[in-house]
Write a structure and sequence with these properties.
- With 616 residues, the protein is α/β, with parallel strands linked by helices.
- It folds into 3 domains: 244 residues, Glutamine Phosphoribosylpyrophosphate, subunit 1, domain 1 (4-Layer Sandwich), CATH 3.60.20.10; 192 residues, Rossmann fold; 147 residues, Glucose-6-phosphate isomerase like protein, domain 1 (Rossmann fold), CATH 3.40.50.
- It is built from 18 helices and 24 strands.
- The strands form 4 sheets. An 8-stranded antiparallel beta sheet has the order 3-2-4-1-10-9-11-14, with helices on one face. Strands 5-6-7-8-12-13 form a 6-stranded antiparallel beta sheet. A 5-stranded parallel beta sheet has the order 16-15-17-18-19, with helices on both faces.
- Helix 9 links the parallel strand 15 and strand 16.
- Helix 9 runs parallel beside helix 13 and helix 16 runs parallel beside helix 18.
- The chain is globular.
- The chain starts with a strand and ends in an 18-residue tail after the last helix.
- The mean pLDDT is 95.
- The protein binds 5-amino-5-deoxy-1-O-phosphono-D-mannitol.
């Protein structure tokens, strides 16, 4: 949602903070703002719109030199994306500046209390109350911002990462976190705070994970972490295993194009080192005992958006390999429907960011019911893997474009690894069967590469349909979640009506949407897999074609039968049935990206969205 950066050190704080915001802009781009401490006073600049607007303002109205600063890029929740609602928010006495990510649920009550005490609030945000509360708490806290933050945090409900500065303690940035991300970057003579390590990875790869309900006091020489009660808190150091160039566009015009192109490597990295010397599958971060895994009677996958689609793909494979029933549930629905989970349920939370609030809350709910929990996550140091009993990282490298691409493929890989591991531990597959599937998986980087080499014609097809009022996607078996994913990509990037359907469902209602010229993207199953599925898809094509649909088929090399039933055929390499989503999704990513580009949209930062959704 919002991106947050804080810096204390020897460099010019503004440069560090703005460069951090540039890397965090994927988290929100409704407005941006900075505050620095210079000559014993606060200096704030903020502006609605993307970071570039703030940079223009900073050019027109420069800030004085300073080595202590904070910055924010916003995804609006309370109050529209205006200059007034942009962060930082400052107390009436101009002594405290605050930035925030999250939602303060009891803000209305706190606002009423402040207004009753005569405080004038100048924005519609929930954040502003914190600035005023801190300012009131500071004298009682002996003019110590850390103590004041502790007192205020104990009054706040909801989710928040807060950073605050006060010119009376000019070399200090104070941070606090509950249910929202905040990591510390450890430098030499300088330290950093940010929502995501991307903000400071160009300066240091040494970082600290903060826990729940912790407060951090950051000076140039020291990082002190305490809990909300003032006790020293435990933190986990970690090393960032990628460098700043991984978060750059690397010669591509768009982060999304770069991330699409990186998929062969991302898949390879997710698979690396998974076979031990004894030839068995090993998952180093699997902290669940074999006995617990043997006792599992049900798997429930919780996730949102693209990650949920990856979970849907995984269901087909994991049930097939383990014979354990797998349910896939949108995390936002899970905890509000009294789900049946217990100690023999394995709940798998899939999340690229590791910070998605719906998924985090669902995970906590599952834990509270006694379930075993496992996170499939891309972001080391994030909350979901920290809170789950076990984790399998996807090692896809930073994903900056709002639309998930390499995360999807690597989430499928990681879920497959978990499925195979369960099969190994429970003895539902022979070791040679598992190795054969690992061999198939290990072929996938090269197959995805092949798709990328031959994907060019997709762009022309995308441009041809750029003005279509609607695009439908249909698939069967593992092609069904791929259809959903293709439609999601198109909605979020091209802002057009797109729906994914199970092909068999068409005749139960959605076929009424078909009229002359409607493009229907068909994810064809392999004729070599279950031939009956291929035949059924051809029937579905016939039904929509008879009503005027234009067919764009994604079909494997050598499937000649499809040609007579399609207007366009996009070829993907031959792979085993369960591996098909790893190749057939890629043209759909390119399709959506190209269509959005043709329509002149901002592909990396689509409207109304943010990369990691840290509110429920
Ligand atoms: O970080 P997460 O994987 O938990 O994010 C989940 C969804 O918000 C995310 O996949 C979203 O649907 C993507 N923008 C889709 O491209």
């Amino acid at each position: 949602m919002c991106g947050i950066v804080g810096y204390v050190g020897e460099k010019q704080a503004l440069e560090v903070v703005v460069s951090g915001l540039r890397r965090l802009e994927y988290r929100g781009y409704d407005s941006a703002g900075v505050a620095v401490i210079a000559d014993g006073r606060l200096e704030v600049r903020k502006k609605a719109g993307k970071l570039v607007n703030l940079e223009t303002l900073l050019g027109e109205d420069p800030l004085p030199q300073s080595t202590t600063g904070i910055g924010h890029t916003r995804w609006a929740t309370h109050g529209g994306p205006t200059d007034r609602n942009a962060h930082p928010h400052v107390s009436e006495d101009q002594q405290v500046a605050v930035i925030h990510n999250g939602i303060i649920e009891n803000f209305a009550e706190l606002r009423d209390e402040l207004q009753a005490a005569g405080v004038h609030l100048s924005s519609e945000t929930d954040t502003e109350v914190v600035a005023h509360l801190l300012s009131k708490a500071i004298p009682a806290a002996g003019f110590d911002l850390v103590e004041a933050m502790r007192a205020v945090c104990r009054r706040l409900e909801g989710a928040f990462t807060l950073l605050a500065v006060d010119p009376r303690q000019p070399d200090l940035v104070v941070g606090a976190r509950r249910n929202s991300p905040l990591v510390v970057g450890l430098g030499k003579g300088e330290n950093f705070l940010a929502s995501d390590v991307a903000a400071f990875v160009e300066y240091t790869r040494d970082a600290l994970e903060l826990g729940q309900d912790q407060i951090v006091a950051l000076t140039s020489g020291e990082v002190v972490v305490i809990d909300f009660d003032g006790n020293p808190a435990e933190v986990r150091p970690f090393t960032i295993d990628w460098d700043a160039s991984a978060a750059e566009k690397g010669g591509h015009d768009l982060f999304m194009l770069k991330e699409i192109a990186e998929q062969p490597k991302a898949v390879a990295d997710s698979l690396r080192g998974r076979i031990g010397q004894d030839g068995h599958l090993q998952l180093d971060e699997m902290r669940l005992a074999d006995a617990d895994l043997r006792a599992v009677s049900k798997v429930v996958v919780i996730a949102c958006g693209t990650a949920a689609h990856a979970g849907m793909v995984a269901k087909y494979a994991v049930e097939h390999w383990t014979r354990i029933p797998v349910e896939v549930e949108l995390a936002s629905e899970f905890r509000y429907r009294d789900p049946i989970v217990g100690p023999d349920t394995l709940v798998i939370a899939i999340s690229q960011s590791g910070e998605t609030m719906d998924t985090l809350m669902a995970l906590r709910h599952a834990k509270a019911q006694g379930a075993r929990t496992l996170a499939i996550c891309n972001t080391v140091g994030s909350t979901i893997p920290r809170e789950a009993d076990a984790v399998v990282y996807t090692y896809a490298g930073p994903e900056i474009a709002v639309a998930s691409t390499k995360a999807f493929l690597t989430q499928i890989i990681a879920s497959y690894l978990v499925g195979l591991y369960l099969a190994q531990v429970r003895g539902t597959m022979f070791a040679d069967e598992i190795r054969a599937i690992m061999d198939d998986l290990n072929d996938m980087p090269q197959k995805v590469d092949l798709v990328l080499d031959t994907v060019e014609p997709v762009r022309a097809i995308a441009r041809e349909f750029a003005n279509a009022p609607s695009v439908l996607f249909i698939g069967r078996h593992v092609g069904f979640p791929v259809a959903l994913e293709g439609a999601l990509k198109l909605k979020e990037l091209a802002y057009m009506h797109a729906e994914g359907f199970a092909a068999g469902e068409l005749k139960h209602g959605p076929i009424a949407l078909i009229e002359d010229g409607v493009p229907v993207v068909v994810i064809m199953p392999s004729p070599r897999g279950r031939a009956v599925l291929h035949d059924k898809m051809i029937s579905a094509i016939q039904e929509v074609r008879a009503r005027g649909a234009v067919i764009i088929a994604i079909a494997e090399e050598g499937d000649e039968k499809i040609v007579a039933f399609s207007d366009h055929v996009i070829r993907v390499p031959i792979v085993p049935t369960l591996m098909q989503p790893l190749v057939s999704t890629v043209p759909l990513q390119v399709f959506a990206c190209e269509m959005a580009t043709a329509k002149g949209h901002d592909v990396d930062q689509p409207r109304n969205l943010a990369k990691s959704v840290t509110v429920e």
